[in-house]
Specification:
It comes from Acidithiobacillus thiooxidans (Thiobacillus thiooxidans). By secondary structure, this protein is α+β, with helices and mostly antiparallel strands. The protein is 29% helix and 29% strand. It folds into three domains: 141 residues, Outer membrane lipoprotein wza domain like (Outer membrane lipoprotein wza fold like), CATH 3.10.560.10; 85 residues, wza like domain (wza like fold, 2-Layer Sandwich), CATH 3.30.1950.10; 79 residues, Roll (Outer membrane lipoprotein wza fold like), CATH 3.10.560.10.
Length: 388
């Protein structure tokens, strides 16, 4: 009996000595994350404690670049179509009686008012941006509206014709068009028209998107700049349904967005979310929520690589990785009710990792379970007389 007791004590001692190293667990303990400032292995990682103010700031920092770009991409004059090389124009000229210039033209006809209307054959804007008009010579058109071109022609004919009136019509548009590609039914080029073409009009002209609206992001490329907008937001918010410009490239992107949720949650899983975004609270809810029997409510973390300029002030001097980013851990204390508001606002990004640490009592429970597994077999062997 004494020998069995001694053996049990020896095994317990060995277990106690090694429990910290060999006790099973699913990820970093809260204590190792809390020691970021003094742990050399984690010296390059920034640990940011998140409250509602920081969460709101981070959300605004993500939204602000989009709003600034949206302002840059907005067409201030969507109703003004400007002509370019390759466009085909048709010109109509009315001359008040008595007509002096176009009365004998074969392209002219009398109107009930007695004036003479002359139709000039279709004119294509040349590579130099001009068209040739009878009696008026070369008319510069590139970069001008139809009304401006008509006014130029009228001014030149005023010395030769009797009170001329001029109307210019766009017959074919080859100079300015919008290219629509990606997850649409028909990739196409859409000619710009007087009055403008909006994002949704361009997508509709391409046959619409082939994926669910809430999974599609619209990418607009112009002059080296790129703007991305969730299609669902463009539909919901008229301000984001901006008027396009000639040369724009509109791409419908189907980008599955995912966040990984691990640790003391009801489920370890990858959570898909919509292009319009998801908050930390929503991501945890989709994983079944925090496991109340295992989780340390003070140790909920979001792991992410951030730009060095993302925060105005980091907790410690910034160390940049080879790809120019800062490894960042955002920490949430869910034992504080105010943190729930922060979790509702905190924006999750694609490929984030959410980790919920286990509570210290969980390790104790595992340890006690391990003791039971060791002690009871020894007692059974003693009872059977195998161990004296």
């Amino acid at each position: 009996m004494r020998r069995s007791t001694a053996l049990t004590a020896l095994l317990l001692g060995m277990t106690l000595a090694g429990c910290a190293s060999y006790m099973p667990y699913s990820g970093p303990r809260a204590s190792s994350m809390n020691d970021v400032a003094h742990n050399k292995v984690m010296a390059d990682i920034q640990l940011v404690d998140v409250n509602y103010a920081i969460s709101r700031y981070l959300k605004d920092e993500i939204e602000r670049p989009k709003l600034d770009l949206l302002q840059d991409f907005t067409n201030p004059h969507p109703l003004s179509y400007t002509v370019g090389p390759g466009d085909t124009l048709q010109v109509y000229i009315w001359e008040a009686p008595p007509a002096m210039l176009f009365a004998s033209s074969t392209a002219s006809m009398s109107t009930p008012s007695g004036s003479i209307m002359t139709t000039i054959p279709d004119q294509m804007v040349g590579s130099d941006g001009d068209i040739m008009m009878p009696f008026a010579g070369e008319i510069p058109c590139a970069g001008k509206t139809l009304n401006q071109i008509g006014a130029e022609i009228r001014e030149r004919l005023a010395r030769m014709a009797h009170d001329p009136q001029v109307v210019v019509r766009l017959v074919k548009n080859h100079a300015q068009s919008v290219t629509v590609v990606g997850n649409v039914k028909n990739s196409t080029e859409i000619p710009m028209i007087p009055g403008g073409v909006s994002v949704l009009q361009a997508i509709a002209a391409a046959g619409g998107v082939v994926r669910p609206v809430n999974k599609v992001t619209i990418q607009l490329s112009r002059g080296g700049k790129v703007l991305q907008l969730p299609l669902e937001e463009v539909i919901r918010n008229p301000r984001e349904n901006i008027s396009l410009r000639g040369g724009d490239v509109l791409t419908a992107l189907y980008k599955p967005l995912q966040v990984t949720v691990m640790g003391a949650t009801k489920e370890t899983k990858e959570v898909d979310f919509q292009a319009s975004g998801i908050s930390l609270a929503q991501a945890l809810a989709q994983a079944g929520g925090i496991n109340g029997n295992q989780a340390d409510a003070k140790a909920v973390f979001v792991f992410r690589f951030e730009k060095p300029t993302f925060l105005p002030q980091w907790p410690k001097p910034v160390q940049i990785t080879a790809n120019g980013e800062v490894p960042t851990v955002f920490r949430f204390d869910f034992s504080n009710p105010a943190t729930l508001f922060a979790a509702q606002t905190f924006p999750i990004q694609n490929h984030d990792l959410i980790y919920v640490a286990s509570a210290p009592i969980t390790d104790l429970q595992k340890f006690l379970g391990l003791i039971v597994q060791i002690v009871y077999p020894i007692q059974g062997l003693t009872t059977a007389g195998v161990v004296p």
